[in-house]
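Can anyone check this?
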Amino acid sequence: MYLNINTITTLKTRVNMVAIIYSTINDVKKAKKIANTLVEEKLVACVNIIPNINSIYRWKGKIESENECVLIAKTNNGNIKKTIRRIKSLHTYELPDIIVLPIIGGLKEYLEYIAKETL
């Protein structure tokens, strides 16, 4: 095993401190603009961009398919609402995909990094 169990935390204090905000957008350039803005404004500690996914969804009664990018942003719970509002203000979609996923555990030092690097 590469990870010492003592360096992983699932304590309630950590569970309520950080979260992932997941979103998609149809262009890498737009994804980078959103990511840079969120990090510069200290709303998030980090954003991962995964290019070239295919999304299939129902929209206004039709099944659609579109190439998109995924944004995975890590933030503290106090920034969730502000981050959602900021992503929405920068997003080009009529209804952006913005969801929050709680982080239930992870490397203690990384969770502390997220908390430290965000407002």
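Reply from J.R.: I decoded it. The longest helix spans residues 28-40.
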